[in-house]
């Protein structure tokens, strides 16, 4: 039962990551919500870096769906555990950039906690 709920949440995380990546790819000004202050949304070089990040987010979301389709709950759990390093790293980046604490803890920190919870539920299943 808990592994089924965790699997659904993993799918929602995957869909969310793909959505955020697509949004950042097509509308780079969406990066302002990431939490880095003074985001140069008109800088073409910065847009290129945002596109790189966006493609990686889309691929990360697709990895989750590949594991949902063909993997085991334990394999998905291990992947979610490893992937939780991404929002932790994002939180550190925003914190070091003097970004808003709401983004550090409310966006990236909360995402890391959710992903760690999902991985724990999948790994104990």
Automatic annotation (TrEMBL):
Keywords: Membrane, Transmembrane, Transmembrane helix. It comes from the Bacteria. The keyword Transmembrane helix applies. It holds the Pfam family DUF4267. The chain crosses the membrane at residues 6-27, 102-124. InterPro entries: DUF4267. This is DUF4267 domain-containing protein. It comes from Microtetraspora glauca.
């Amino acid at each position: 039962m808990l592994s089924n709920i965790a699997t659904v949440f993993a799918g929602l995380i995957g869909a969310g990551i793909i959505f955020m990546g697509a949004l950042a790819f097509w509308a780079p000004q969406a990066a302002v919500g990431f939490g880095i202050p003074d985001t140069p949304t008109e800088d073409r070089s910065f847009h290129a870096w945002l596109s790189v990040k966006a493609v990686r987010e889309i691929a990360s979301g697709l990895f989750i769906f590949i594991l949902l389709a063909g993997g085991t709950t334990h394999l998905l759990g291990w992947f979610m555990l490893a992937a939780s390093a991404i929002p932790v790293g994002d939180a550190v980046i925003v914190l070091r950039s003097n970004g808003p604490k709401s983004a550090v803890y409310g966006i990236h920190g909360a995402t890391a906690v959710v992903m760690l919870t999902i991985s724990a539920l999948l790994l104990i299943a």
